[in-house]
């Protein structure tokens, strides 16, 4: 069937930056709705059938959970409880008592709960897919047909679905599934979360994807969120060349990050615990650009002591002897509250007492942490920098820097996540030793779009010119004052955007270690002048989509023929 | 009748994983437990019931149980609800 369509593109939200080419296959259509004819069996016989099907389905889902492990197991365990739910079983039995078949009773009872969840909206609505999946599996069991699931052809394919249930994504055969495309679902859907975790090329929310015929060839470009349907031979060849080039990049020897003209751009790692230290070093991290300290405080009812903290910090700093390690002071509140720090429930925690605001309200916790950090630095040769989270004003900057100096921290800076501190970066950097831009929160606050909410996901794009202009303000202030400006959000892990950020004045980039190789390779392709030219192109665009397209098109002739740009 | 009123600690409330952990603990307890939020009271062993209460971070809920070991069971469940599982 390949080649029956005109070349066309679908736009969705890309997860990660992967690229894939292949024939598509759709998830089988859901089972037909069970008919509402009266049951030929006695109610008690129907109830026995249903009880067996519910138990078998729960056992099957648990088994899938065991095999998948990780966060997939948690999600699947929750689904197993849905199949065993006593309230649901009562509802099913009541429907059977009114004369319905087991299939129909199961279908109606699950649908009633599903509608309830959907009517609650937001995070609840996204759980509705879980319930539909369990319902289908139970009905399939009652009918004695295979449970609906991922197709299993004998060749690699691109899977298309409305939205994948956790039971499906957990067991994808990664040797065969080249990419995932969903027509529904946002970046917080299970499909997106699991695709990210397993590094599957994925685009979610690609409207129209379900209308594509099986077997048609597509190019899935997650970095742009674009699905190219029935590509020309040239497009296909270019995509395959890029895939091969990226595979080759992984073999490029590790070295310090730098632009093509030799301008150094240190590439650092974002770490949340000391466990990932070895991986970061192996992938060539030149230091740590963001060490999150929340792990020391979570799951505890009291803040850890100075001695407990110092031991952990010493282990971290010893791992990066002689290198830079930027530690962020405890960033609690909003999406990660702590009982001893965030005492009052807030209507709108992202705008509440979080970050440095919360620490300041409990200064002893901040003092202990800074003391433990200073002690650990004194014992090791790593170059310790400490920064305060969620700083909004010059006054807060002065408070933090003064306290850090008093407690023996040599280099004290601030995170720029709030537009106010980006706009006044020249004043803030006059006091702070450095700034580090948290692009996730900066995007959330600039576009007023909750990071965790799928319904506003399209606003959550760090390519937005408004976000980039704020980054540029900080970059300009840093250059004028001779102060370093780092990036430590997801944006730094997007190779093309990383080049733009350097063009806007970022002096170092910090990211999850898995992204280091791609970013290192991309930086090496362009000079500082080119990076600045790309930054201008992005700033003059009207939207994130336009900014990305403008930069990619300016860079493409250079990326496909790297020899001409050198 | 033993009773505990607690404030939910998990950042995203009692959805998905925290709800699953809670229901698992209720089922393991082996005695009927009721969960009340506002006007609504339901069987705490029902994950769909628990999810459909729409319990958010900071909400107050009440647990009730009767019979042998009810106090110990409620203490354990209360501790679960006042721990942040989304961290």
Automatic annotation (TrEMBL), chain B:
Compartments where found: Cytoplasm
The keyword Nuclease is annotated on this UniProt entry: no
Keywords for this protein: Cytoplasm, Phosphotransferase system
Gene Ontology biological process terms from the UniProt entry: phosphoenolpyruvate-dependent sugar phosphotransferase system
GO CC aspect terms: cytoplasm
InterPro entries, per database record: HPr (IPR050399), HPr-like (IPR000032), HPr-like_sf (IPR035895), PTS_HPr_His_P_site (IPR001020)
HPr domain sequence ranges: 1-87
UniProt key word Glycoprotein: no
Pfam families xrefs: PTS-HPr
Main localisation: cytoplasm
Gene3D superfamilies: HPr-like
Known function: General (non sugar-specific) component of the phosphoenolpyruvate-dependent sugar phosphotransferase system (sugar PTS). This major carbohydrate active-transport system catalyzes the phosphorylation of incoming sugar substrates concomitantly with their translocation across the cell membrane. The phosphoryl group from phosphoenolpyruvate (PEP) is transferred to the phosphoryl carrier protein HPr by enzyme I. Phospho-HPr then transfers it to the PTS EIIA domain.
NCBIfam families: PTS_HPr_family
Name of the protein in question: Phosphocarrier protein HPr
């Amino acid at each position: 069937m390949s080649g029956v369509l005109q070349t066309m593109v679908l736009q969705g939200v890309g997860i990660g930056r992967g690229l894939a080419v292949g024939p598509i296959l759709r998830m089988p259509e859901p089972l037909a709705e069970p008919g509402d004819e009266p049951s030929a069996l006695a109610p008690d016989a129907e109830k026995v059938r249903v009880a067996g099907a519910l138990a078998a389905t729960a056992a099957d889902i648990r088994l899938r959970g065991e095999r998948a492990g990780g966060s997939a197991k948690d999600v699947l365990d929750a689904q197993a409880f849905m199949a065993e739910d006593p309230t649901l079983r009562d509802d099913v039995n009541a429907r059977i008592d009114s004369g319905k078949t087991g299939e129909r009773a199961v279908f109606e009872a699950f649908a009633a709960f599903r509608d309830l969840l959907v009517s609650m909206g937001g995070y609840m609505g996204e759980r509705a897919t879980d319930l539909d999946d369990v319902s289908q599996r139970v009905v399939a069991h009652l009918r004695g047909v295979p449970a609906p699931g991922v197709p299993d052809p004998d060749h690699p394919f691109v899977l298309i679905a409305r939205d994948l249930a956790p039971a499906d994504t957990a067991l994808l055969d990664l040797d065969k599934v080249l990419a995932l495309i969903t027509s529904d679902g946002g970046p917080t859907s299970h499909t997106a979360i699991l695709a990210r975790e397993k590094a599957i090329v994925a685009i979610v929310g690609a409207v129209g994807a379900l209308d594509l015929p099986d077997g048609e060839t597509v190019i899935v470009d997650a970095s742009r969120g674009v699905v190219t349907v029935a590509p020309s031979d040239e497009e296909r060849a270019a995509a395959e060349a890029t895939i091969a080039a990226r595979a080759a990049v992984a073999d490029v020897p590790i070295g310090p990050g730098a632009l093509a003209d030799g301008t150094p751009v240190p590439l650092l790692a974002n770490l949340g615990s000391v466990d990932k230290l070895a991986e970061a070093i192996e992938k060539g991290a030149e230091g740590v650009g963001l060490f999150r300290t929340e792990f020391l405080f979570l799951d505890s009812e009291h803040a850890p002591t100075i001695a407990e903290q110092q031991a952990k910090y010493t282990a971290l700093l010893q791992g990066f002897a002689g290198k830079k390690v930027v530690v962020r002071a405890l960033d609690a509140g909003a999406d990660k509250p702590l009982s001893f720090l965030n005492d009052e429930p807030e209507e709108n925690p992202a705008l509440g007492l979080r970050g440095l605001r919360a620490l300041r309200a409990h200064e002893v916790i901040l003092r202990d942490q800074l003391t433990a950090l200073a002690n650990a630095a004194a014992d090791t040769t790593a170059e310790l920098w400490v920064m305060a989270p969620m700083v909004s004003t010059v006054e807060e900057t002065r408070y933090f820097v003064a306290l850090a100096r008093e407690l023996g921290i040599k280099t004290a800076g601030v995170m720029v996540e709030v537009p106010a501190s980006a706009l006044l970066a020249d004043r803030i950097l006059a006091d702070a030793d450095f700034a580090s831009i948290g692009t996730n929160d900066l995007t959330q606050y600039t576009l007023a779009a909750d990071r965790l909410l799928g319904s506003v996901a399209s606003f959550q794009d760090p390519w937005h010119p408004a976000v980039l202009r704020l980054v540029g303000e900080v970059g300009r202030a840093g250059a004028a004052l001779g102060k370093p400006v780092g990036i430590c959000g997801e944006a730094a892990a997007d190779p093309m955007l990383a080049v733009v950020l350097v063009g806007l004045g970022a002096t170092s980039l910090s990211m999850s270690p898995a992204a280091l190789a791609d970013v290192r390779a991309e930086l090496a392709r362009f000079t500082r002048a080119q990076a600045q030219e790309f930054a201008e192109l992005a700033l003059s665009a009207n939207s994130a989509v336009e900014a990305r397209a403008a930069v990619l098109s300016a860079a493409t002739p250079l990326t496909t023929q790297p020899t001409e740009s050198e | 009748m033993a009773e505990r009123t607690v404030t939910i600690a998990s950042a995203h409330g009692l959805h998905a994983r925290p709800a699953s952990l809670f229901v698992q603990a209720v089922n393991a307890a082996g005695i009927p437990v009721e969960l009340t939020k506002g006007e609504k009271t339901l069987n705490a062993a029902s994950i769909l019931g628990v999810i459909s209460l729409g319990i958010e971070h900071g909400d107050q809920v009440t647990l009730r149980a009767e019979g042998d070991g009810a106090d110990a069971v409620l203490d354990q469940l209360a501790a679960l609800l006042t721990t942040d599982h989304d961290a």
